[in-house]
Design goal:
- This protein is α/β, with parallel strands linked by helices and about 400 residues long.
- It has three domains: about 170 residues, Aconitase, domain 3; about 100 residues, no CATH class; about 120 residues, Aconitase, domain 3 (2-Layer Sandwich).
- Helix content is about 40%, strand content about 15%.
- The protein has a five-stranded parallel β-sheet with strand order 12-11-10-13-14, sandwiched between helices. Strands 8-7-6-9 form a four-stranded parallel β-sheet, covered by helices on one side.
- α3 links the parallel β2 and β3.
- α7 packs across α9.
- It is globular, with a radius of gyration of 21 Å.
- It starts with 7 loop residues before the first helix and ends in a 6-residue tail after the last helix.
Length: about 400
């Protein structure tokens, strides 16, 4: 096992110079560094904390202990979704869970974190750039930061994320290193042709490559240059859910994509493959509701939903749109359009992790490969996957409408 070399500054933090809270956080970081056989720690420029999502009493105990010890984050730190919608608290059916979630969210704000409560921190201002070392949790944020932004973050789970924020350090291991960021498997997407210009291609493609690549690093060939960040968001989120993908390369698109990869195994992806994936992620049945925006819907996606619901027959089914509070504030008059049409705008949380949907609903439509993957196990519903336009058309018709 290689020796872990700490700087004099890091030794001082570990020894308690900056207080017991920093010392506790540094012990966690050093312990993880030794487990991952990191030769040293690396200074980070930002953190995104997932520990603010309530998973039981231990979540509160750890956060309160850090507050009691006087810990404060020392780098800009955003917060992932919590277990309640602080703007619309009545949406959450389990008020006991909501109360615990609210307490936990407040504890992280007390540590100096910014109350963003979004799973898509890359949609916020001041996002990290190429080569920056960061410590982000939340699987879709990790894959987006590594792949699209070219920032460097490994996978950081609960408690490790906030400890990195408090110390400003992370183990120099995994995707913090150049060696670990190389592609491992190629997916030739060129046979998909014009289908790659549809939004539905990307959650399907992400689910497919994640199920094959596992924790590897896919290299995608044939993605069109006009692909949007929302498309790449959907792809990465689905790949991280179906497998353990924390980074992908899209040749000619993402900043670290290789130009040579002849020695890697190749999988060809055609329309038949993605049609099969859609069947796997979708089930038939009477439709009860629609939920879109997982990861949180971007400003552009919210505008698209507003455009789709602005004219035409009223929605016959409950329709939920999850987004960040910052995006909601940006919507202005478009928020009125959405709400008047019957769209429930959810912030601070997501409908597949919090008790918002009615327990009697069994079949829900979504535009998200991630939601379709997790919701059956998390909230006991079956899903059908469609584009935003198909989701709105289905909510209007009261039944599944696919183009």
């Amino acid at each position: 096992m290689p020796t872990l070399d700490l700087t004099a500054e890091e030794e001082s933090m570990l020894g308690g110079r900056d207080g017991d809270g920093v010392a506790l956080a540094m012990r966690v970081i050093v312990g993880q560094a030794r487990i991952s056989e990191a030769p040293r720690l690396v200074e980070i420029t930002s953190a995104h904390v997932d520990s603010c999502l309530y998973h039981g009493q231990v979540s509160l105990d750890f956060a309160h202990r850090l507050v009691e010890l006087g810990a404060r984050v020392r780098v800009p730190t955003t917060l992932n979704v919590g277990s309640t919608d602080l703007v619309h608290p009545d949406l959450v059916r389990d008020q006991e869970l909501a109360a615990a979630g609210r307490e936990l969210m407040a504890a992280y704000v007390a540590l100096g974190c910014t109350p963003t409560f979004t799973c898509a921190p890359y949609q916020l201002p001041n996002r990290p750039g190429l080569g920056e070392h960061i410590a982000w949790a939340e699987s879709n944020a990790i894959v987006f930061a590594n792949s699209v932004l070219g920032a460097r973050t490994d996978r950081y789970g609960d408690f490790l994320d906030v400890c990195a924020a408090i110390t400003g350090r992370a183990p120099y291991a995994g995707l913090q290193t150049s060696e670990a960021r190389r592609g491992t498997v190629v997916f030739d997407c060129r046979p998909l042709g014009d289908f790659l210009r549809s939004e539905l291609a990307y959650p399907l493609l992400g689910h497919h490559i994640g199920s094959i690549a596992g924790a590897g690093i896919p290299v995608l060939v044939g993605i069109p240059v006009e692909v949007t960040e929302d498309d790449l968001k959907a792809l990465g989120a689905a790949a991280a859910s179906a497998g353990g993908v924390a980074m992908f390369h899209a040749v000619g698109i993402t900043p670290e994509a290789p130009s040579e990869f002849a020695d890697l195994p190749v999988h060809e992806v055609d329309l038949g493959v993605l049609q099969r994936v859609r069947r796997e992620l979708s089930t038939s049945g009477a439709l009860d509701a629609v939920s879109v925006g997982t990861p949180h819907a971007s400003y552009a996606e919210c505008l698209r939903v507003a455009e789709l619901v602005a004219d035409g027959p009223p929605l016959k089914l409950p329709f939920y749109l999850s987004t960040s509070r910052l995006t909601r504030e940006r919507l202005g008059s478009k928020l009125d359009v959405l709400e008047k049409a019957g769209v429930t705008v959810v912030v601070d949380t997501c409908t597949y992790v919090t008790a918002i949907l009615s327990p009697g609903w069994k079949h829900v439509m979504t535009n998200s490969g991630k939601w379709a993957h997790y919701a059956p196990g998390n909230i006991n519903v079956t899903a059908v996957l469609g584009s935003l336009a198909e989701c709105v058309a289905s909510a209007r018709a009261g039944r599944v409408i696919l183009e």
